[in-house]
Amino acid sequence: MSLDLNSIWFVLVGVLFTGYAMLDGFDLGVGALHLFVKKDEDRRIFINAIGPVWDGNEVWLVTGGGALFAAFPMVYATVFSGFYLIFMALLAALIFRAVAIEFRSKEKWGWWRQMWDIGFAAGSVASGLLIGIVMGNILMGIPLDARGDYTGGLLRLLHPYSLLLGITTVALFAMHGSIYLVMKTEGELQDRVRRWVNLTIGVFLTCYVVLNVATIVYCPHLLARLDQRPLLALVFLINVLAVMNIPRAIKRRSDFAAFLSSCAAMALLMALFGLTMYPNMVISIPNPGNSLTIYNACSTNLTLRIMLIIAMMGVPVVLAYTASVYYIFRGKVKLTPHSY
Amino acid sequence: MNVEILARIQFAFTIAFHYLYPPLSIGLGVILVIMEAMWLRSGRVRYHNMARFWTRIFGLTFAIGVASGIVMEFEFGTNWAAYSRFVGDVFGSALAAEGIFAFFLESGFLAILLFGWNKVGPRLHFFSTVMVCLGAHFSAVWIVVANSWMQTPVGFSIECNGTIMPAGFVPTAEQILHSRAVIHDFWAMVFNPSSMDRLMHVLVGCWQAGAFLVVSISAFYLLRGRHREFAASSLKIGLVVAAIASVLQLASGGKAADGVTKNQPLKLAAMEGIFHTRADAPMSIVGWLDMEQEKVVGLQMPGMLSLLAGGSTDTVITGLDAFPKPDWPKVQAVFQLYHLMIAIGMALIGIAWAGLFLWWRGWLFGKPNPLVRAFYVILVLSVLGPQIANQAGWFTAEMGRQPWIVYGLMRTSQGLSAAVAANHVLASLIMFGLIYALLFAAFIYLLTRKIQHGPDHEEDSEEMPSSWIALTENRRRKAGTAAP
Hints:
A: mainly alpha; B: mainly alpha; 2 domains; 3-stranded antiparallel sheet; 15 helices; 68% helix
């Protein structure tokens, strides 16, 4: 992998989306688990566990999208227009998730809270599912014409393989969210959430195994990669180890270590995704000649260089204050009159 | 209906809805910085209570602004793929800068602004408030830069089939499929001829939106005789910001109009309904365009437009007739929206300065009297003014640019997504219609609730953290003032 500007931006866009998965991933996971607690106070604790941070976490998606637009406009245009209805549904899901957090606890009526609780959970699950479906289609390859426009229909996007990847994503987020909740809760609620962790790991690993088998069946073009890049096998191995470390850490009550393991697992999954695709960004099947790569879908070198300067100035600052905010809001959730 | 109409309606609808909220965040951000600064300086608990209350209103508008903002970022790609490919090299860096410099700053420190009252000291909290306010302003910078580039594109070359074309090249409908704008001068793009004028105009419009919201809610409390001290203090701050912003807006509007005269003469002709190129061109106050006879019926100031544009009534103003008719925007709509914006802008100056006058005479917060009460009612309604004017202004700018999506380079019809069918856009349009109706209803309901609830404490705040109380005491001792 030679380190030209295009590759750097391939990695940076990947880093932004990985940041999104690691951070908003636990928000969406908390949402997916939300309806499994019944008591109003417990549900409020769940929501307030992500209350101060979900907004900043979602910015990783916005910035990732912006970086994709800036660095690889052809990919941005092709994917967003090609998966039109999926992205529209994703927008609806993200909106419901966001405003449900804001509105839920503003009234005491049972039906009001139940309505927004369902909106919160459904929005969170749907977001994970739809993100997974998009990634599934990218892995499988989609039909593109010479200009790079998607020529298939909606049904093709809902192929069982993509759906499977969608479900796996929801399971991954639920696992990540349950570990995050262990860190933010205490007492009886924490004991209950702690028991969920192993359950969610089990569900995720099952999905993951099935997904790998399905990849062999449905994505033959990806298998060739394994021979070219033996590094893939190593990343895969470390990834499995990271997931295996979670139950061990949870059992030893090193909750933060478990959370870091889960973050590492997500980063490694994204690395697998990136290593498998590189240097392709959207694979055209059946006409591989129309594929979008980091070289034919990118902005000019000047723009990539300007953006690299912007990123080098901005990203360290962003990381510093994001870390500070997480540090300030560390510890268990305490409900106050002005909590959500 | 065809894809183009539907996609345009969807973009207009979603951006118009979104734009109800960011101006409030930007404007309220400024007000929050002022209130917290006053609290830190004076140590008066009332200012602390004010900052707390207005922060809650801020939080509500911010949440919907974020939720409806992601839609905008996605829509460039979903509905305008050809446009995104064409401008990505130019537009993208502005959008990426917006994400890194503005959105992260806003949302990161927002957590401390909203939830950090009991977690950090007052100085760090104030710093966070300033950062949120700054982030909100930065977000306006980059999106206005990008939009201004669409109005007055510079600093780029056209690349057609992989070759850089000479300056002034305009791609044909066939060529544009294989063309894109590539940047060659980043700073020329950022400081394009219209960006700074328009940025100022937009930001001041946001300050007006925030200030008049504070004015309106405070006047409502005074009208009802509730939270009088709190409302009077808030109203004073709101009125001062509103009065300054409204006058600034007149100046920045004039500057922006100058820019349009120079850079987009066709748009100016539509805004003022100048059908025929002429000297001694009038400026309309209100009017209706007779599109058959090609003239304006209504109240006009003779020669004013020429005077403003060139310093003399002899200045020749280019009319619509200098351009082929298919290139005209929707002249009637542009004219009406533009004049609606100006009329509201003038009214806001009047309201804000009348408020200052009444305050100076001691009538505004004096004994209840029917005239002052009537003025309170006007203040309560004034919140609608900046909102309508901001919308009308943006519609003028964007409709006035039509039929171009990038002025003089790419037509709106050429920017669409080839992969998206009309029925898909119709489906998403209906979806947004339903979701936004629900959101708007919930927003209004919750805003009303927060207003009904009012500030938590009139004078003393039991919620104030102990470290903050210590600081307050300290300040008071230093200032030598008695307890409020």
